[in-house]
Amino acid sequence: MSKDPLLQPYQLKHLTLKNRIMITSHEPAYPEDGMPKDRYRAYHEVRAKAGVALTMTAGSAAVSRNSPPVFNNILAYKDEVVPWIKRLTDACHEHDCAVMIQLTHLGRRTHWNKGDWLPAVSSSHEREAAHRAFPKQVEEWDIARIIADYADAAERMKAGGMDGIELQAYGHLMDQFWSPVTNTLDGPYGGSLENRMRFSLQVIEAVRQRVGDDFILGIRFTADEDLDGGITEDEGLEIARRLKATGQVDFLNVIRGHIDTDPGLTDVIPVQGMRNAPHLDFAGRIKKEVGMPTFHAAKIPDVATARHAIAEGLLDMVGMTRAHMADPMVVRKIAEKREGDIRPCVGATYCLDRIYQAGDALCIHNPATGRELTMPHEIPVADTKKKVVVVGAGPAGMEAARVAGERGHDVIVFEAAPHAGGQVRLTAQSERRREMISIIDWRMDQCLAKDVKFRFNTFAEAEDIAGENPDVVIVATGGLPHTEVLSEGNDLVVSAWDIIAGDVKPGKRVLVYDDAGDHPALQAAEMIAKSGAHVEIMTPDRSFAPDVMAMNLVPYMRSLQDKDVRFTVTYRLKAAKRSGNLITAVVGTDYSSHTEEREFDQIVVNHGTIPMDELYFELKPMSKNLGAVQQEALIFGRPQPLEANPDGTFALFRIGDAVAARNTHAAIYDALRLVKDI
Ligand SMILES: Cc1cc2nc3c(=O)[nH]c(=O)nc-3n(C[C@H](O)[C@H](O)[C@H](O)COP(=O)(O)O)c2cc1C
Ligand code: SF4
Fold it and tell me: Residue whose CA is closest, atom 13 of ligand 1?
C-alpha cells in the first residue's frame, strides 16, 4: 500500500473514494441535444480508467427550462437525460470511480436567446456583465417551481446511477440570492442573511427529501465574493456554518471570488502567469473553521502542490481539473511513480475560453482531449518500424517526433535554430506566458526517452533529407511573420515577432496594427507599453484580439490599461509613408472610403505567418504521394495512400504553420492525427 497522501482512500459518508484526487465539475460543452452522449461518456471514462477517485460531471447542468444552456449545458430537467447519465455512470463505475454531477439554476448568468427563449430570472433586475441578459426579478411562483425543479433533477440523477450531486452557488441563482449585490428582494427572500439563504435551504431540504440519506449532496459555493458590497469571508463562514447546521449537506467545495465579469472569473480560475493555488490556504481555513469534508480546485496543476494540500490537511479532496484535461493519466502516473511523464497543464485556458467562443473545450496541447472517440491518449506501437525524418522542432514537429517515437519508429529531427520550440519559444519570452515552454519541454523529454535524435543548428536541404533514406518525411518548418499587407511602405513596418524576440527596440509613439487578432499583437503591445511608449492598438475588426478570447484577455488588459495605450477598432492600415524621422500611417476603414493620416515613429504589424515551404516543394517530386494528404483517411484514422508517384522513395507530409498560419492546437492536432497512423 502506497504511503503517498494523495493515494489514500477517503470516506465520504457511505462512499469510499479510492484516492484524494478529483475532477471538479466543468462543462466542456460536449452535450449533443443537451444530453451527455458518447463523446461525453468517453471523455470521463478514460479519466476514470486512469484512476481518478471522483469525477464531478457536467458543470452547471440545468435544473429548469428558464436556466437556458448558455454554454451547451446538460439539460437535467428532461427525463430523457436518465439513460444517458446511466451509460456514463456505468462506464465510470466499471473502473471504481465515483461519479457525481453539478446541478444548478444559472439565474442571470445566461441569456434569454438560448434554449426556449424564456427570460432569465434572478433575485434582482440587474444584469450580469459577462452574459448580459437583463433578468426578470423572481416571483414566489418562480421560486416554488425552481425548488421543485431541483428536486426533480436530483431524482433523475439518482435514477441515472450518480453517487451524488453538487449544487452550484457561485455566480448562479443560489448565491445571487445570498449576495447583497444581487438580491434586491423584499419579504421572505431578501434582507437578512437568513432570508437570503432561505431559497437555497429550501432547495436542499426538497432535494434531500427526494433522494434520501444514501445519496451524497454537496455544495460548491463562494465563501468570499471578494467584491465591494458582496459576501465577505465572515459572512461566507456563517453561510458554511448554516449549511452544516442543516445536517443535510455532505461536503463543501470552496470557491473564493466572483464570476460576474471576465476578470472576476479569471481570479477564481487563474490562467497562466497567475499564481498557483491562490485560494488553497483560504479553503483550508474554511475546512478548519467549519469542520466539514472540504474539496477545492483553483490552479493546482502540479502533483507536489496537490500532495501538500492533502498532507497538510488543507483539503480532503483536491481538484486537478485542467490538469486532467491536459493529461487524463495523472493518477496512474503518480501510482506508477512516473510523475515526470505527466503532460503538464500550462494554464493556457484555451479549454475554458473555447466553450463560449468556439463551442467546445479543447486543450491547447492535448488534441485527444474531447476527441476520445477518435484520438488516442496512449499511442500504440506500429507493426512495422520506419525511418521518420521531421524537419522543424516547433510544436507541430515536436508532436510529430513524439508520436513517431511512441510508435517505435526510428526518428530524426532537423532544426535550423539552436533550440526546439519555434513560435512557442517566442511566446514564452513574455514572463507571463513562460509556462508555454512546457509544451515543448515535455515533448523533448518524451522524445529523448524514445531515442529520437535531434540535429540542431542544421538548416536541412533536400539532399540531407534524402540522404537519410527515410520512409516518411514530415515538414514542420512553420512560418515567418507576414507583414506585406500595405499598398505602400511595407519596408517601413516591423513584425510583432521582431518586438517579442527583442530584435527590434520599441519606438516612442507606436502603432500596433493587428488584423490577425491573436496573441502576438497584444504581447508586443505589452512589451512596448512597458518601455514607456505611447501605443495605439488598431484593428479592422469589430473588436480587438478576438482569438485571444475572454479569460486570456484579462492579464493583457490589467497590464495595458494603466499605461499609455489606446484601442481603435474598425480602422484598417492602408499604407505607410516616411516623413522625416516619423512614419505617416494612412488609415482607412472597410465601412466607407474615409481615410485619415496619423504619425508614429514605429509601426508594428501582426498579420499571421506565411509558410516556410521551399523545402516541402523541393521534396515533393521525390515523394511517393507528391505531398498529398487524403483528407478522408486523415479524419477517419486510416493510413495515407502513397501510390501517386511510383518513382518516389518516401511519403511526404506537411503540417502546422508550414501549411497555413493557425494556432498551437491546430499544429499539434495536425501532427497527432497524421502520425498516429504511420
Ligand atoms: C472548460 C471548463 C468549464 C468549467 N465549467 C464549470 C462549471 O460549469 N461549474 C463549475 O463549478 N466550475 C466549472 N469550471 C471550473 C472548474 O471546476 C475548476 O474550478 C477550475 O478549472 C479550476 O481548477 P483547475 O485549476 O484544477 O482546473 C470549468 C472549468 C473548465 C476548464
Ligand atoms: S488548454 Fe491550457 S489550461 Fe486548458 S487544460 Fe490544456 S494546458 Fe491546461
Answer: 26
Distance CA 507, CA 252 (A): 52
pLDDT, tens only, 175-223:
999 999 999 999 999 999 999 999 999 999 999 999 999 999 999 999 9
Query: What is the whole-number distance in angstroms between the Cα of residue 348 and the centre of ligand 2?
Result: 5
Over residues 66-82, the pLDDT tens digits come to: 999 999 999 999 999 99
Going along 82-227, which residue ranges are E strands? 98-104, 121-122, 136-137, 164-169, 216-222
Burial 391-426 (b: 16+ CB within 10 A, else e): bbbbbbbbbbbbbbbbbbbbbbbbbbeeebbbbbbb
| Ligand 2 centroid, distance to 328 Cα (angstroms) | 12
C-beta separation of 70 from 109 below 8 A: yes
Mutate to test the pocket of ligand 2, among 271, 274, 321, 322 (most ligand atoms within 8 A of CB): 322
As given in the structure block, the three cell numbers for residue 174 are: 443560489
- Beta carbons of 550 and 357 less than 8 angstroms apart: yes
Sequence-ordered list of residues with C-beta below 8 angstroms from that of 320, at least 6 positions apart, any chain: 21, 22, 23, 297, 300, 301, 306, 330
Q: 451-501: per-residue pLDDT in tens?
A: 999 999 999 999 999 999 999 999 999 999 999 999 999 999 999 999 999
SS3 content of the chain, % helix, strand, coil (to 5): 35, 20, 45
pTM, two decimals, is 0.97
Q: Give the count of alpha carbons within 13 A of 518, CB side only.
A: 16
Q: pLDDT class for 1, splitting at 50, 70, 90? A: confident
The three cell numbers of residue 69 are 444552456
Identify the burial level of 602 via C-beta atoms within 10 angstroms of its C-beta, where 0-12 means exposed, 13-18 middle and 19 or more buried.
Answer: buried
Atom of ligand 1 nearest to the CA of 322: 27
* Average pLDDT for 391-411: 98
Residue with CA nearest ligand 1 atom 22? 298
Per residue in 23-36, pLDDT (tens digit) is 999 999 999 999 99
* Residue of 272, 349, 352, 371 best suited for mutating to test ligand 2, as the one with most atoms within 8 Å of CB: 349
Helix (H/G/I), strand (E/B), else coil: 168:
strand
Q: Which amino acid is at 503?
A: D
Judged by DSSP in three states, 137 sits in strand
**Phi, psi values for residue 236, rounded to 5°:** -60, -40
Q: Can you tell me the distance from the alpha carbon of 129 to that of 282, in angstroms, rounded to the nearest whole number?
A: 26
What would the mean pLDDT of 109-129 be, rounded to a whole number?
Answer: 96
